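Recap from last week: sequence in, structure out.
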Amino acid sequence: MKSHPTTIRRTAATASVVLALGAVSTLPASASGGGREVERRGNCSASTDWKLKAKSDNGRLEVEAEIDSNVNGQTWTWRILHNGGVSARGRTTTKPPSGSFEVRRLLINAPGTDSIGVRATNTSTGETCAGGLKF
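Predicted structure tokens:
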């Protein structure tokens, strides 16, 4: 039996959607303590790594950003971005034992999808970190 070209295209499109959904479901997003949580990780411009996490917290968004260089005593400037604007900013030093720092903030949970980002720059080396997520 020969397949009709439209059937082949539909089957291929369905397979693509299933594969894409499978790839998305492997991303670290999970339910925690009855609330939703989304986490993303990535590499910075050199050897440092970043992590950004957002979760529901009594009608607000708890955002946690981590910069991990594995080097103690580095000074970094950082910004937490929310829906295109700067929500928080600061200057922090990496601390033992891990050579990292964390920033936690509570943000307003805007209607619809929230776009959250982190940007950090090492003040000595110029290394930059940038990451984001949708919540």
